[in-house]
Specification:
SAM-dependent_MTases_sf; 2 domains; about 40% helix; about 280 residues; Rossmann fold; 11 helices; methyltransferase activity; alpha/beta; transferase; methyltransferase; 7 strands
Amino acid sequence: MESRASFTAETMALQRAFESHRPAGRRLFDDPYATAFLRPSLRVLAEAARLPGVRHLAFSLYDAVAGPGPRASGITRTKVIDDALTSAMTGETQCVLLGAGYDTRAHRLPALAGRAVFEVDHPATQARKRAVLGAGPRYVPVDFERDDLPARLTESGFDPRKPSVFVWEGVTNYLTAEAVGTTLAAVHGLGGDLVFTYVDVRALHEPSPFPEARRWVRAVARSGEPWTFGLLPASTGAFLAEHGFDLRQDVSAQEAGGGSGLYRIAIAARRADAPHQ
């Protein structure tokens, strides 16, 4: 396992900080903690977005470097998942954030206040997060490629007898197909429903129908966190059915309000009658 915190987690925090610094009546969400995770150079850029006369310039500078898709897609996926999670948190429902990164939903979403929230991620990222936010959710250090997710969760107090929602945001595209299948089997075995993101597999191969794909794929590879997995949207329902889930919703960031057509957000319900994988 690598010892450094995730760079992509930091860029997502920057995107959330950008959106949070828009006027209250225009922003899609408010994340007052995002800026604290940024290195000094990125923090200056985020703070510049507070100023009406400089905001557009800061956004344009980021988009010029990252390309036209990442910022808008990251903001849209955050909003879609916020809404889905808020709707799902009823009764004794537990929340599990898989590959949580610098996700701050446990601190900023009223629907999660007083709930059992479990954050699963690389220990280096979690160490940075603890230093910034302190107490909050239950941190569960896991390497998705090697560790036993159900065992780690139950050791941390997760109750498989209670309803649960698993959020898997910005993770599947960095895993192997085997790791994705193993995690889906674990979530099903734990009795959870699932909200997750994935990339259209056509973005990983050239020629791609997405003009922004080449630049985006190369950028994440240069950062040391290449995309390794994707799904064909037309086959996502069948793929999930093989793992015991029914697809309820599947939209691209573009369809959901802004961003790229290659980045997608899906919601799936566990089928109680499906065999464990």
